[in-house]
Amino acid sequence: MTARLDVLAEGYADDRVASTVVLVREGDAVIVVDPGMVARRSLILDPLAVLGVDPRQVTDVVFSHHHPDHTLNAALFAEARFHDHRAIYQDDVWIDREADGFELGPSVRLKATPGHSAEDITTLVETDGGLVAWTHLWWSADGPDIDPLAEDQRVLEASRAELLALRPALVVPGHGSPFRPA
Question: Smaller CB count within 10 Å for the chain: N or C?
Fold first, then answer.
């Protein structure tokens, strides 16, 4: 079984900022990754509607890290479980767990990829087209090579190398359109 990944909103980071928001579906799992800042909420909700997904059907929301530009619209998905680098949260329940290796479905797992922040995680999705990595190890296909907000550039570069060793067919960066890694 493989999952389906759809980009709901392509992010950008220039004079304004928006995160890239994706939808992952596999079996009963309906997952939104990084429902952060966008120019208006309809840029997340309208593509969901076109795909036939009601926000109440979203089972899980993944935060790559806790910067507001990646988390701001989380409340759109009131029925979901929320995942970050250390726990699962739903309603008033907080379950500690390490994200690295945690599976949200047979084809969807989380991977610790620190660098941009110490708490960064990547969502890895096995699709019919190969492995797709939603990650903030890159802002976009064009860089920057040196992350101006990285907590530790050396650690970020090590995480990049580790992720590329998995040979993803596609990388979905934090603030840009998906690209094929060289």
Answer: C
Single-letter amino acid code for the residue at 106: P
Which residue bears the tokens 């979203």? 58
- Could you tell me which of 103, 32, 102, 14 has the C-alpha nearest to residue 73? 32
109, 100 Cβ separation under 8 angstroms: no
Angle (CA) 87 65 81, round 5°: 40
C-alpha angle 34-38-40 in degrees, rounded to nearest 5: 130
Handedness of CA 64, 65, 70, 73 (dihedral sign): positive
Q: Is 86 exposed, middle or buried (0-12, 13-18, 19+ CB in 10 A)?
A: middle
CA 21, CA 115: separation in Å to the nearest integer?
20
What's the pLDDT at 182? 84
pTM, to two decimals: 0.97
CB atoms within 10 A of CB 121: 27
Question: In the beta sheet, which residues pair with residue 31?
Answer: 24, 60
Name all domains of the chain by residue range, CATH numbers in brackets: 4-173 (3.60.15.10)
Measured distance CA(155)–CA(182) in Å, rounded = 20
**To the nearest whole percent, how much of the chain has pLDDT over 90?**
98
